[in-house]
Design brief:
The protein is of the alpha+beta class. Helix content is 42%, strand content 34%. β2 and β3 form a beta hairpin. The protein is rod-shaped, with a radius of gyration of 29 Å.
């Protein structure tokens, strides 16, 4: 007479394999969530930097004088953050125009650069 033993439940190996699959899926979800959070923060930083850079360039265009050649730095506060705007004014081949670059930095990390040309009025 042959005795057969019926299995009731899962083996330890099967449980460990299932747990490792669940752990891998959870890690993938966590990484995707972190990437979305970083992307949202980057978009927010770019938006604030664009506001600061455009404000500086408009301020330069609205003055009635040609901007002096050289570099300046100003602090721009947007949404409770302090952004640094480095403005560089450079000559162009035509002496009636100047190139103005505004680079925005957050914690000494460059975020955005905008440029324009300013002419005599």
């Amino acid at each position: 007479m042959k005795l057969t033993r019926q299995q009731a439940g899962f083996t330890l190996v099967e449980v460990l394999v299932a747990l490792s699959i669940v752990a891998i899926a959870l890690m993938a979800g966590l990484q995707a969530s972190a990437a979305l959070t970083r992307h949202a923060q980057r978009q927010s930083d770019i938006l604030l930097a664009q506001l600061c850079a455009e404000n500086m360039l408009v301020k330069t265009r609205l003055t009635r004088q040609m901007p002096a050649i050289g570099d300046t730095t100003e602090i721009c506060e947007q949404a409770g953050q302090r952004l640094t705007v480095a403005v560089a004014v450079r000559p162009t081949p035509n002496p009636s125009f100047r190139r103005v670059d505004a680079q925005v930095l957050i914690e000494n990390r460059p975020v955005l650069r905008l440029s324009t040309i300013v002419g005599r009025r």
